[in-house]
Design a protein that fits this description.
By secondary structure, this protein is of the alpha/beta class. The chain is built from ten helices and nine strands.
Length: 271
């Protein structure tokens, strides 16, 4: 019998998440970058696992390209919103949404191997033990499969500059805090957030995976909490989005994004 679902701190923001991020100018600008990587890595006919799927936007995008997706999230209300989105696609959509925490991913092993996996926009930053995630994911993916993971970055240039400029060095440097920091999702709702470096990610995902490449998301595009600024200067945001496309893959600069997209490859079966 499956263990009960743990308390899901993201439930309170499920109904407003698309409005506050997905459909915002900054949200669309950052998601376009990730979709470019998803479309490059995953092909029609493949069976893909999504972790921390939220409201299902990415899974629906992939199924529109002929990719089969099992999309999981620990938050039941997020899955409810995702299923409503799925209902608008009709019965032929190749997506299954399931309430399942990343920490319980090993339960999927009886369902066979996947051709790839992904997680978008920092869901894995809220997981305490990424080493266990890597080992469990290694059991679920076929040799050579891609794991595309979009994580909150550590050296977020916009955040550092913004908060230093507003006289708040503690918040400017919060991503460097040892042991992680507390993120406030809603009134009375908080979650522990970790910001592993690129080197730490490579260490945590070895030996099951090797890092093929990584790029920044939001190197020049501001973080989502500056949405009011983007609405005030939409043309400037378009310019920053174009610049982001030029610099997001460059050495040094690619590490300065609000998020980092890691492309890992499964290199061997776990013994």
């Amino acid at each position: 019998m499956a263990s009960p679902v743990k308390t899901a701190p993201f439930d309170p923001i499920a109904e407003t998440y698309d409005q506050s991020f997905t459909d915002s100018l900054i949200g669309r600008a950052q998601r376009d970058v990730v979709w470019h990587e998803l479309d490059r890595c995953f092909q029609p006919g493949q069976r893909i696992l999504e972790l921390n799927c939220g409201t299902g936007v990415d899974a629906v995008h992939l199924t529109g390209r002929g990719v089969e997706v099992l999309a999981c999230d620990a938050a039941p209300r997020m899955i409810e919103v995702a299923k409503r989105r799925l209902n608008s696609l009709g019965p032929d959509a190749q997506v299954e949404f399931r309430v399942l925490a990343t920490e319980r991913m090993a339960e999927l092993e009886i369902e066979g191997v996947f051709d790839g996996a992904f997680s978008n926009f920092g869901g894995l930053n809220c997981v305490e033990d990424l080493g266990t995630v890597a080992r469990d994911l290694g059991r679920l993916l076929a040799p050579g499969a891609t794991a595309l993971l979009c994580m909150l970055g550590r050296w977020a240039a916009w955040e550092i500059a913004w908060y230093l400029g507003h006289g708040n060095p503690r918040k400017a440097l919060r991503r460097f805090q040892r042991g992680g920091t507390i993120g406030r999702l809603a009134e009375g709702v908080a979650v522990k957030v970790h910001y592993p470096s690129v080197r730490a990610m490579c260490r945590l995902f070895a030996p099951e995976f090797r890092l093929l490449r990584f790029k920044g998301v939001g190197v020049t595009v501001p973080p989502s909490y500056l949405g009011a600024l983007a609405q005030r200067f939409p043309r400037a945001l378009l310019t920053l989005k174009r610049v982001d496309g030029w610099v997001s893959g460059l050495p040094v600069l690619r590490s300065l994004g609000d998020h980092i997209v890691f492309e890992f490859q499964r290199i061997r079966w776990q013994s």
